[in-house]
Amino acid sequence: MKVTNKLVAVLLMGEMTLVALGALAWKWPLAEAYAAEPRRIIAQVWVLSFGPPWLAAGWFLAQRKLATTTPRPSGDYRQWTEASLIALGVGVAVMQAWVARNFILDDDLGRQALLRGMTLFIGAMMAAQGNFLAKVAPPTGSGAPEASVWTRVALRMGWAMVLVGLGVMVCALTLRPPALFLVTLAGTLLLLANAIRARRALTPKAG
Would you say 110 and 163 are in contact if contact means Cβ atoms under 8 Å apart? Predict the structure, then answer.
């Protein structure tokens, strides 16, 4: 990864860790008072704690993936991976900060608006990622697929991401919770299935 992107990722992980620890430390003395509504508190704690390990895991996997030389990822693909990780990290940091604010003040201000906004953001990210992925240059070196195969698979995967992303955005503007969460989950599962299919298509056939 580029030094700038590494620095941004480290700063995001540090900021989210401090926000989570600060919010939990602020609320800890009042834990007994909220024992009557454990589900809401558990959900908020989960959101507060989710960001740092998620970004750290994404960073580790991205580093490992981009470091491979068999085949060697193209510069376009490196840029796509790093930009996607940073943009999603910023989105998670904003969500965590809003949840921390409500957690500390014992408030539900903008809860539905936040969920709707995050769903809209995720859909926009899917569409933007797909649009860029469809134009990414193929990898090179040992084990690289043929350029025609890569282009076909990248176009298929890219357009799938664009269509799913636009669908998620429309749902974000029209549906209510908990349907918003289910739509995002369904879209993610569809893209995961498409990614597995794409990976198989790009794997060189034995013999």
Answer: no
Sign (positive/negative) of CA torsion 172, 177, 179, 184?
Answer: positive
Residue carrying structure tokens 């799938």:
160
- Is residue 175 within 8 A of residue 147, CB to CB? The reply is no
Q: Cβ distance 137 to 76 under 8 Å?
A: yes
Tokens of residue 139, six digits: 């990898």
- Listed by start position, the domains of the chain span 1-109, 110-207
Place of tokens 């076909």: 152
H or E element that contains 8 = helix 3-27
CB distance 127 to 51 below 8 Å:
no
Closest CA to 85 of 105, 114, 56, 64: 56
User: CB count, 10 Å around CB of 191?
Assistant: 19
Is the predicted pLDDT of residue 181 greater than 70, yes or no?
Answer: yes
Please report how many Cα atoms fall inside a 13 Å half-sphere around the Cα of residue 85, on the Cβ side: 30
* Contacts for 117 with CB less than 8 Å, ≥ 6 apart: 172
Write down the pTM of the prediction: 0.76
Region 162-187: what's the mean pLDDT?
A: 85
